[in-house]
Fold each of these.
Amino acid sequence: MSTLPKVAWIGLGIMGSPMSENLVKAGYDVTGYTLERDKLDRLSAAGGTAASSVAEAVRDADVIVTMVPASPQVEAVAYGPDGILENARRGALLIDMSSITPQTSVDLAAAAKDKGVRVLDAPVSGGEAGAVEAVLSIMVGGDQADFDEAKPLFEALGRTIVRCGPHGSGQTVKAANQLIVAVNIQACAEAVVFLEKSGVDLAAALDVLGGGLAGSTVLARKKDNFLNRDFRPGFRIDLHHKDMGIVTDAAHTVGAALPVGAVVAQLVASLRAQGDGGLDHSALLRAVERLSGAQV
C-alpha cells in the first residue's frame, strides 16, 4: 500500500493531462475530473481513476490539485455545494496550479481556512513540453509548512520549485513570468521577420543567436515554431491575453509602469481579435508579418 497522499486532480487540459500522468508515474493514486470524456479516458489509460464530478474526485483526497484556465473556472470548481470546499475533508491541501489573479488566490485561501482546508497557489511555467518532461518551474505562495509537505509532489512535476512568499505570491511571480515571456516572444518574432526580409539563413541565424546573450528558453523552445510556422497550441494566445490582463491590472494596483508590456499586451489582443486566439503564443510572429506587409 502506497504511503503517498491520495491526489484529486481537477482540470485535464494541455497542461493538466501530462502533469497528472507524471504523478501516476511517480506512484501517486490520482483521481481526476474534467469536462471532456476523452481526457478522463486518457487518465484512466495512464493508470489514474476517472471521477464523475468534482465532489466525487475530492471526497477522499489528501491533496487536491486544480489546473484550469482562469479565475472564473477556479471559483466555479472551488465554491458552491458541488465544489471543492464543500466536499473536501478537513485538513486536505488544495494546490491551485492555474494562472489566476493574485487576489483570487488570497480570497480562496481565506475561504478555505474557514473549511479547514489549506491552500497553496502554485502556477507553473514551461508550457506543454515542460509539463510532459516534468521540468516545469513552479512558483508557490502560501505557508512554509504546507510548501514543505507539497515539495515531493512538486518534484514529480518540475525542476525549479520555489516558495515566493504568502498567499498570492506565486500568482504575482507568474504574472511577471508571463510579462517576460510575451515580450521575449515578441522580440524573437520581430527578429525573425527582420532576418528573413534581409535574406539571411534563418535556421543558421537562430542557432547562433541561441548560443549568445540573445539566447533564451523562449528562443530554444519556440525556434521550430518560428522556422516551420507551426502554431499548434502549447500555450494559446487566448490564455496569454488573459495573463497580460492580470499583470497589467496587478501592476496598476501597485503603481508599477509597464511601458513595453503594455504595447505587447495590445499586440496579443490584436492577434486574438484577428481570429488567432486558439494558436500558440509563438503566433505573435503572424502579427509582425502582417505589420510588415505579409498576407498571413
Amino acid sequence: MPDRAPQPVDRQLPTDEARDLISLVRDIAQREIAPKAAEEEDAGRFPREIFNLLSESGLLGLPYDSEYGGGDQPYEVYLQVLEELAAARLTVGLGVSVHSLACHALANYGTKEQQVEHLPDMLGGGLLGAYCLSEPASGSDAASLRTKAVRDGDDWVLNGTKAWITHGGVADFCTVLARTGGEGARGITAFLVPGDSEGLSAAVPEKKMGMKGSPTAQVHFDGVRIPDGRRIGEEGQGFAIALSALDSGRLGIAACAVGVAQAALDEAVAYATGREQFGRPIADFQGLRFMLADMATRIEAGRSLYLTAARLRDAGRPFARQAAMAKLFCTDTAMQVTVDAVQVLGGYGYTADFPVERYMREAKVLQIVEGTNQIQRMVIARHLAGPESR
C-alpha cells in the first residue's frame, strides 16, 4: 500500500496569529507526539516531557490572560489546538484539557493576590494540574461529595478520597472540591492544593482499556493542611465554580473527540485508497465510499457544533446547552467513527499493527468523562423543558 499522508484539516481561524499557532502545534504533534504514541500507550508511559515542551511553547495556558502567563486566545482557537493534539495522542490532548480545567477556578474566581502568586507557574511554569471533584460514591451526583475541609485557625484540614482523577499521582497541583458546610451543593468550597502536600497520596493507577499512558487514580487526603489563602472563592461557592468549569471542560472533551475521530478517518481513507481487492482499490466500492462519506460528515458536524458553542462563550453569551450538545454529539461521533474505521480495515483494523483499534478503545472513555452522555441529555432536556418534577 502507498504511504499516503492525510491532508491537514482546513480550519477557519480568526487571526494570522491563530494560524501560526496551529502550524506550531501541528509541527510538535508530527515530530514529538505522534511517532511515539502507539509504543508509549502500549507501555503505559506518561509523557511528562511532552507537557514540559507544551508549557515551554506557551500551549498550556492558551485561553487565559497573558498578564499571568496565558495565551490570550479565544476558546474557538484553543479548542482547535486541543483537536490537533488529541488527533496525535489523546493522552496529550485530554491532558491539556484537564490542566486547563484545573486552572479555571483560580483564573476566574481567585483574588488578584492569588492569581499573581500562583497563575504564572500554573499557566507557563511547567506545572501540571488535576481536577478533583468525583469520588468513589459520587460521580454524576457530584453535589453529594463527602471529602471534608474543616477550619482550624487560619488553615483548613482536608480528609477524604477523590476518584477517577486524571494525572492522579503526577500532578503538581490539584483543584479540590470539598465539603465545608451542610449537605448538598451549597456546602461545597473550592481549594488549590499543592501536589506535594503532606498527607496527599495517590493509589495505584486504574487499569484501563484505553488511554493507558494517562494515569487515572484515586487521590487520598489524610489530614492535608492548607492555608485559607488557598481557598478559591467564597465558602459554599465551590459547586457553582465546579459547574462553571465543567461547561468549558465539556467543550474540551468535544474537541478531543473530534480529533480522535479525524485521526481514525484519515487512517481509514489511507487504507481504503491503498488496499486493492478484485483488481481495484476498496475505496472504489460504493459500500465503503458511503461509509467514509458518513464518517466525514459526522466529524464536520461535530466540529461545527463545538465551534458554535465556543464562539458563544467567547462572546460572553450563555453556552451551557450548546456545550452539553457538543460533548454528547462529538463523543458519540468519535465512538461511531472509530468503530467504522476498524470495519474499513477489516482484520487489520483488529490488530495493534494499525492505530484504529487504539482509537476505538480511547473513544469510549470520552462518552463517560466530564459527565456521561446520559447526563448531557438531562442537561439539554432541562434547558428545553425545565427541571424534572419531583
